[in-house]
Amino acid sequence: MNHSALPTAPRLVPAATSAGRATSRAVAVLGVTLLLGACATGPQTERSSSAAEQMAETHFAAGRFADAAAACAPAFQHGGTTACQAVTARVRMLEDRVSEAIPLITAWLKARPADREARQLLAEAHYRQGRGDLAAPHYQALDRGSVAKKLESLGASMYRIAEPGITVTLPFLQTDPLPMVDLIVNGERGSFILDTGGAELILDPGFAKRVGAVEFGPDTGTFAGGQRAAIQHGAVRTVGLGAQRLDNVPVLLLDTAKFALVAGGRPVAGVLGTLILYRFTATIDYPGARLVLAPRAVPDPGGGLSLPLWMAGDHFLITPGRFNDAPETMLFLDTGLAGPAFAVPESELANANIRKSTEGHEGVSGAGRITVHPLAPTRVALGPLATPGLTGLAGAFPPPLEHRFGFRIGGLVSHGLLRPYRVTLDFGRMRLGIQPPGSAVRDVN
What torsion, rounded to 10 degrees, do the Cα atoms 233, 269, 401, 35 define? Predict the structure, then answer.
């Protein structure tokens, strides 16, 4: 895919791990963070001129999203400028207030028909609503014909939930080095790695053939380390999630044999990513070894921290955090990095005074082999939850992601940090719940 999906970082499995504290030698493994589509960097709309517009854009670039929208609010008393429509639309999409974003993006695109960012956002908005019929023409206009054909075929009922009122629990087949669950795709069972760094459901081509997935053509994905590889777009009739079922599900086809080292000897049928979890209130319960999918109307039950959660692009889950004593930055919640707790771009090494080993190790991303460098033990904080002594990687963070969305993403956090907790993705309220055993709920704005 060209721009819309970014596979997660290369999954690296250290020789021994315990909640992100890995021993020295590392051997290969996994990467599904995939960047699809045109590799634009940040918002493409021309710079604004008024003081309010400039203030809004400054707030947005600094990750102060609510302040960015507030700075533009007075402009809407007079109809709103295109620059303020653009800034506010970006914020509403991050907040997943899609129905509010669509009129803003539509007005922005009407004023600037050639603006590819506006068209991409409108395509993503319709996709989130399950409206493949409305998203398809915009992907076609972005020269993403395979995506357009896939979504057009799925029509107005993508990701249809068969049993809207029920909560289901999928037991983990394993928790380490990465969780795996069983799904039923077109009636056939397969074992899937759980990875919020992934977007659409990924199927191994062999499994896809067995279940009769329909294929719609190739695309190119940019993976960890800037590597590129071919993928295929497809669709399946049904995905069974325990007693729950989704109908009309878009998928990607990618060889998953390379991920066998994290599967405990099981064949890997594919990767369960964010765009299925997004249909529910999803709890990755590491201590309980289970994935719980509740209706969106069911809130996070609490019992720990409640942090802000934003969704950038088609699936990138973002929350604020910091490394050591560096300034707060936005972090990508990517659960599919096996072993290490985090990965950072080169720029964050200096910001957070993190030492990088000169000794490189070989990892495997979705596109092939990549060299990564272990990092010195680091304190990683999500809100007030700070964990010292965690190991991380340089070379695993996808370089195009750092400035992809017009604000800086200073790293990703993964399995080694999250492993002790019950992690809830409350998409209805856009909150990230992190619940240690026996803790009381604490809301952090």
Answer: -10
